[in-house]
Amino acid sequence: MDDENLPKVIKQLERNNFEVFYAENALAARILFENQILNKIAFSSVSYADSLTMQSTGILDLLRSQNSIKFIETFDNNDSWETRIRQRRKALDVDLFLTGTNAITENGQLVNLDMIGNRVAALTFGPRNVVLFIGKNKIVKNLDEAFKRIKTISAPLNAKRHENFKTPCQKTGICTNCRSPQRICNTWTITEKSYPPRRIKIILIGEKLGY
Fold first, then answer.
1. Which one of 64, 106, 127, 136 is separated from 12 by 20 to 30 angstroms, measured CA to CA?
2. Is the pLDDT of residue 1 over 60?
3. Residue 148, SS3?
4. How many domains is the chain partitioned into structurally?
5. How far apart are the C-alpha atoms of 160 and 85, rounded to whole Å?
6. Contact residues for 129 (Cβ-Cβ < 8 A; gap 6+)
7. pLDDT in tens, 11-23
8. What local confidence, expressed as pLDDT, does residue 82 receive?
9. Where in the sequence is the domain holding 119, given as residue range(s)?
């Protein structure tokens, strides 16, 4: 993605009713989130779905430290699987939800592929406000390129993060449409527009972050 095209992508996202912010890097994204988003949202509960880009900002530690906020933890390895799933259901009813996206097209569409579906469920419905942290490497030309990116980059690399999983893409680096019980590619979503308008807020970051 050529940096000179970033303003065009931002404009298209805004035309699609997303509220868009730009930050040069992960640190700037955190400062922007605190100063331009967090202070303008009335919220008492917050949760998140997995996103390396979002985690790189350190914003979760900030929110966990706020005693006045109900922070719903969804990835505590000390919890049982059943507890984590129960927490992820609760996360669909928070005031503020944080995550990332697998790809953005130049037409301003968000494309995602999930294993469980808690991330895309929150993106489409439930939380009153959703904030996405997205590195510029996630921008692609069109839907075909988005699908290709996810199948050859995002999904295999995310599978490799789970050392206890056994999927073909961990070895081949490419999705083979497997039948593994631990397959992470189960639910696709394409978000054409934000509804209600500005419910989904995007912090587009001018560096390569996440998968």
1. 127
2. no
3. helix
4. 1
5. 21
6. 41, 43, 95, 96, 97, 199, 201
7. 999 999 999 999 9
8. 96
9. 3-140+191-205
